[in-house]
């Protein structure tokens, strides 16, 4: 029994060291998980900010193209052809900015379709206002889905956002 008197404290010390090391490793594991989540949140926020800037630039130019096209169709010569051509060029450049910033193919496709329809309208081809509105709504929905994936967009949220 004398051997347990000397081995007991040594074994208890060894068990304490093993438990301490296990606790330390578990703590490091939890910290790394928290750090990776924090990095994911930061990357997601940076993506949203970059995409938001690209979307706002695209929408600003799209609005200018729509106004210039409407003014030209009403025989008001406020937008000359070179100015409208430059706006269309800027629109396609902004579309490429969204192509680079977007994570999802639906957003890229919706942006392309909206830009193509605006270009057709600027060139005097038939483009109904309802078709442009529908394409703009699809673009906005795709942008929302790309910025906030896995979050449903409610009608109440979109009404308060306006």
List the helices and strands and how they pair.
Blueprint: H1 2-73, H2 81-101, H3 105-122, H4 129-147, H5 155-161
Helix pairs in contact: 1-2, 1-3, 2-3, 3-4
Structure write-up:
The chain is an all-alpha fold and 162 residues long. It is built from five helices and no strands. It has helices at residues 2-73, 81-101, 105-122, 129-147, 155-161. Helix 2 packs antiparallel against helix 3. The longest helix has 72 residues, at 2-73. The chain is rod-shaped, with a radius of gyration of 29 Å.
Question: Brief overview, please?
Answer:
With 162 residues, the chain is mostly helical. It is 85% helix and 0% strand. It has five helices and no strands.
What are its keywords?
mainly alpha, 162 residues, single chain, 0% strand, 85% helix
Fraction of residues in helices? over 70%
Low-confidence stretches: none
Distance between the termini: 82 Å
Provide mean pLDDT, rounded. Answer: 83
Oligomer: single chain
SSE arrangement, N to C: HHHHH
- Helix count, DSSP H or I runs of 4 or more residues: 5
How is the biggest beta sheet arranged? none
Helices and strands: which structural class?
A: mainly alpha
Q: Shape from CA axes?
A: rod-shaped
Residue fraction in strands: under 5%
> From the alpha-carbon coordinates, what is the Rg to the nearest angstrom?
29 Å
Number of strands: 0
């Amino acid at each position: 029994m004398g051997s347990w008197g000397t081995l007991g404290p040594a074994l208890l010390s060894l068990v304490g060291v093993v438990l301490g090391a296990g606790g330390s490793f578990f703590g490091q594991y939890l910290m790394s998980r928290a750090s990776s989540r924090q990095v994911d949140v930061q990357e997601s926020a940076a993506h949203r900010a970059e995409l938001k800037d690209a979307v706002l630039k695209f929408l600003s130019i799209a609005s200018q193209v729509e106004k210039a096209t409407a003014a030209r169709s009403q025989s008001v010569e406020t937008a000359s052809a070179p100015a409208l051509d430059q706006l269309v060029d800027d629109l396609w450049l902004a579309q490429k900015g969204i192509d680079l910033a977007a994570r999802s193919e639906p957003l890229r496709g919706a942006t392309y379709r909206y830009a193509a329809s605006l270009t057709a309208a600027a060139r005097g081809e038939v483009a109904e206002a309802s078709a442009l509105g529908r394409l703009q709504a699809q673009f906005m929905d795709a942008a929302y889905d790309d910025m906030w994936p896995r979050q449903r967009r409610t009608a109440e949220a979109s009404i308060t956002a306006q």
